[in-house]
TrEMBL record:
The keyword Zinc applies. The lineage of its organism: Bacteria, Bacillati, Actinomycetota, Actinomycetes, Mycobacteriales. This is GlcNAc-PI de-N-acetylase. Keywords: Zinc. One of its GO terms (molecular function) is hydrolase activity, acting on carbon-nitrogen (but not peptide) bonds, in linear amides. It comes from Gordonia alkanivorans CGMCC 6845.
Length: 251
């Protein structure tokens, strides 16, 4: 087969750049197809506009697909919609299944089972992506959502232990290290070197201007020395789960 088609499933605007921006830019630059489903924030909100700017920086060929649920801690993100974690899971799976069947990705990329660092929206997005990838392949489920389509592999973005070791003293000094996340190297299946794309990835992150102003963690990250920022932005790590024999290589 040729270059695989990617579908990225993220919970919040900025996650697409921070956790998978290098992979996305490299894939699109190489002529690959990639689409983004964003679970929270409604079209027309400030963070939707910032997200549109960010995916343009990363080179994505189409606007993000907004599921339009509310961010767990930001009700203004979608004033007329329920929180992502409180809405009907079946309705969410049905909606994402329809997008998978329409777009026909070979690979779905989302967070690991911990949601990288435990945010409930991230954990929920992981579960939603896994459930919809399974459902999309079934001829018995969601007949009105289009013909069945089998995703070949799931890839889960994760934060390695060494990266958290670098971040913890500056960003989380009050939290004991053993209470912070971090995936050991032995549990990481794919490490992607995106050092040549680190500046573009950072530009994608900083396009989320309102979140840079609001988030202590992102502001703290951007205040780190340039060489530390570059090291952190230069690597993306993933766990892999094949849904068909042999699966599909990410890069």
């Amino acid at each position: 087969m040729g270059t695989p088609r990617l579908l990225l499933v993220h919970a919040h605007p900025d996650d697409e750049s921070l956790w998978t921006g290098g992979l996305t830019a490299r894939h699109v630059d190489a002529g690959g197809e990639a689409d983004l489903v964003m679970c929270t924030w409604a079209e027309g909100t400030v963070r939707h506009r910032e997200l549109t700017d960010a995916v343009g920086i990363l080179g994505m060929p189409r606007p993000p697909i907004m599921l339009g649920y509310a961010d767990d801690r930001r009700p203004e993100s979608a004033p007329d919609a329920p929180r992502l974690c409180a809405a009907s899971f079946d309705e969410q799976v049905r909606a994402l299944t329809a997008h998978i069947r329409e777009l026909q990705p070979d690979i779905v990329v989302t967070y690991d089972a911990l949601g990288i660092y435990g945010h409930p929206d991230h954990v929920h997005a992981h579960r939603l992506a896994c459930a919809a990838a399974d459902a999309a392949a079934s001829t018995k489920l969601y007949h009105r959502a289009g013909p069945a389509w089998r995703v070949r592999s799931l890839y889960f973005a994760t934060i390695p232990e060494w990266m958290m070791d670098l971040l913890a003293p500056s960003l989380f000094p009050e939290i004991p290290r053993d209470q912070l996340p971090g995936t050991p190297d032995s549990e990481i299946d794919v490490t992607v070197d995106v050092s040549d794309l680190a500046a573009r990835k950072k530009a994608g992150v900083t396009a989320h201007r309102s979140e840079v102003d609001r988030s202590r963690a992102i502001a703290g990250f951007l205040s780190l020395p340039d060489d530390v920022q570059h090291k952190l932005l230069s690597v993306e790590c993933y766990q892999r789960r094949d849904l068909v024999p042999g699966g599909c290589e990410l890069i």
